[in-house]
Amino acid sequence: MFVDNTWLDIALRGVLLSAAALLWVVLLIRINGLRSLSKMTNFDFVMTVALGSLVAGAAQASDWKEFGQTLIAMGGLFLVQFLAARIRKASDAADDVMQNEPVFLMRDGKFLDHALDKTRVAKSDLIAKLREANALDLSCVRAVVLETTGDVSVLHGDGLDEILIENVKEL
After folding, report:
1. 115 near 105, Cβ under 8 Å?
2. Does residue 9 register a pLDDT over 60?
3. Angle, to 10 degrees, between the axis of helix 42-59 and the axis of helix 64-90?
4. Strand residues in the chain grouped as ranges (E)
5. For residue 98, how many other CB atoms are within 10 A of its CB?
């Protein structure tokens, strides 16, 4: 790609290729929409990780062919994510296959030990999440949910609208 392998050449190549790859990602996000990196589903999470890996690969490309292939792969990821989102929206069966279910880890101030075991979440990690959510009294914790993305949602307060937990699975 560049004529010699001096340190300046290597530094310039890294800066220019990573900048070009990031601009390409920004363009793809503008085309596909902000949901591209939303991490709303496990599929989105995998997309984000794969995209990061491809940006790193593009920044390290040793020739234009490798760089171009990496940019095309990024576009392919966005296309697959777009199609998967359309299919999930159109078909409940496809959505069930492609998406995990959120799971209760705690309910009405009580730890659900079976769910913690089955999801491999340590009680100490759950307690840390409760502290992060400013839960001050376990009796005020209405539900703790392990979301489909791996995030933990802590719902605490005086009441709980059932619509917030209607699709959460009890193990």
Report:
1. yes
2. yes
3. 170
4. 103-107, 110-111, 141-146, 152-156
5. 15
Among residues 30, 31, 21, 4, which one has the least CA distance to residue 69? 21
Mean pLDDT calculated for residue range 120-126: 96
Task: Output the pLDDT for position 11.
Answer: 85
Quote the CA–CA distance of 83 and 8 in Å, as a whole number.
Answer: 42
Query: Distance between CA 52 and CA 68 in Å, rounded?
Result: 16
What strands lie across the sheet with 152-156, from one edge to the other?
110-111, 103-107, 141-146, 152-156
Amino acid 22: pLDDT: 94
Is the pLDDT at 94 greater than 70, yes or no?
yes
Give the bridge partners for 152, in sequence order: 146
- What is the spatial distance between Cα 77 and Cα 81, in angstroms, rounded to a whole number? 6
